[in-house]
Amino acid sequence: MNADVAAIVRDRGSSPLLERVSVAAPRAGEVLVRVLATGVCHTDLVAIDGGVGYPFPAVFGHEGSGIVEAVGEGVSRVRPGDRVVLSFASCGACTTCREGHPAYCERFAALNHRPESDAIVVAATGEPVSTAFMRQSSWATRVIAHESNTVPVAGDVPAVVAAPLGCGVLTGAGTVLNVLAPAPGSGILVLGSGAVGLSAVMAAKASGCRDIIAVDPLPARRRLALDVGATVAIPPELVAETIATVGAVRHVLDTVGTQESTDAAIAALAPHGTIATVALRPGSNRISVPQGRLLWGRTIRGVIEGDAVVERDIPRLVDLWRAGALPVEKIVTVYPLDAIGQAIDDTRAGRTVKAVLLTPDGGEEAPGAASPLALLDQLRERRFGDDDLARLWRTLPPVEPAQLRGRWRGWAVTRGHRAERMLERSGWYGKHFHTDDDVDPIIVRTRDGDLVADESFSRGGASLWRVERDGVLTAAMVYDALPIIDSFTRLSEDAVFGVMGGKGTADAGRDFYFVLERDADGDPSP
Ligand code: CXF
Ligand code: ZN
Known about the structure:
By secondary structure, the chain is an alpha+beta fold. The protein contains 17 helices and 25 strands. It has a nine-stranded antiparallel sheet with strand order 20-19-18-17-25-24-23-22-21, with helices on both faces. The protein binds cyclohexylformamide (CXF) and zinc ion (ZN). Zinc ion (ZN) binds at residues 41, 43, 62, 167-168. Zinc ion binds next to loops.
C-alpha cells in the first residue's frame, strides 16, 4: 500500500502542502476511510484563514468520499469495503437530534470543530497535526471519521460526484427540499450561484418551481445556472427589476449573507414567504431587517447543512443524481490532490465552482484523472467517445492565458473530424503564443523541416483572452479573421486540452478536441 499523505496547512492563510503522515487505527465509534475524492468548500477557506479557530498545523476538508477500510468497536452502519460519503457529525441523543434535526445538534461544534491531535501525525517526526475537522479532515489519503457522519452509498456513484454531496450540495439542495419545500409552480430566488446556489437551483427544478431566478455577478456562473435549471439568471443589480416583472417569490435562498443580499431577499419576498440564509461569514455578521415587512407572515431563518439527516438525505441526493435531476458533475472541476494549491486559488478567484480533489486511489477509479500522464496516453490512444471528451474538457481546471506562452506541439483527439483532415493536409505542427496579442494559431513544418506560421488557413494571427465556455472561464485563442475560438483546459503543466468553437466548426454536430503539448525547444517567452 502507498504511504499516506495529508494536505497540511502549516500557518494561518497559507497554502496546504502534501506531507507523509501516519494514520491511527479507528477507536470505538470511528471509521477508517480510504479517501478517493474530497471537495473544497467555502468553509475550508474560512478555516484556512483562521475563522474556525483550528490550531495550525491543520488538515481541513469536509466533503470526503471513499471506501471503508476498518471500523472501531460498536460501529454498525458501515462495514469494511463499503463506499461512503463523509458529512457532518451529530450526537443523536440531544433534543434537536431526537426531533430529527441533527444539523442543529447541541454538540455540533464539539463534534465537528474540535481539533484532535492524535488521529494523524507527521510520519517522519511524529509531530501532531489538528484533524477531525467536520469529524473527517478529508484532504488526505486515509482519514478517521465517525459513524454518525459516514453514509454508505451505492458503488456506481463516481467518487467526484459523491464527495460534494457531503456538504455543498447537501446545503443547497437540502435547504430547498427540507426547509423551503416549494410547491410545484412556485417561485424561488437564489442569491449566489456557487456550488450551494447551483445545487439549490437543481433541487428547485426537481421540485417543479416555475420561476427559478439565479443571481450572480459572474457571467460564467449565470450561464451554468441556466444550464442546471434556472429560468432567469441575472447580476445582483437586476434583482429588483426582475422581481417587478415576474412578481414576488415565496422562497429565497441567500448564499451570500450580506446586508445587501438580505435587503434584496426581503424586498423580493411575498407575504408568508421564507428566506433561508445559509452563508458562513466571519464574526457575528449582524444584519437588520424591516420589521414591518416581516409582519406579513414573512420568515427569515438560518439553515445549516440543509437541515439534513445525512443517512436519509444523502441517499436521496444520490437517487436524484441517478435520475438526472442533480447534475453535480456540471459544477465539478477535478484536480489531483497534489494540485490542491491550484484548486484553492481557482476557488478563491471564482474560476472554479466546486473543486474536487482526487487522491491517487481515486484516480485509479476514474482512470487518468489523477495522473496527467495516464490521461494523455488515453487521449493519444483515442479511447474516449464524444460525450466523454466534452465531460472531460469541462471537468479539467481552467488555464490562465499567461500559462500558454511559448510553442506547443498539437495533435487531434476527435476521430474523423473535418478539422483533423484540414490540419493534416496543411502539415500542422502546433501553435506559438508569443504574447497575448501575438499568436501564430497554426504553425506548420515545411519540406525543409522549418516551422513557419501558415496563414493560408488562419488568414492572419490570433489573440488570447479569458472566455467562458460550458461554465469554465479559461484561456481561449480567438482568430483575428475567423469566427473561431479555441478554448483550453489544463491537462498538466505542459499539456492543455483544446476544443474548437464558433461558427461552422462542428462536423455533423461533433466538436473538435485536440491536445497541445509544450514544445521543449520552443521560445518560452516573447
Ligand atoms: C458550515 C456552515 C456553518 C457551520 C458549519 C458548517 N457548512 C458548510 O460548510
Ligand atoms: Zn462545507
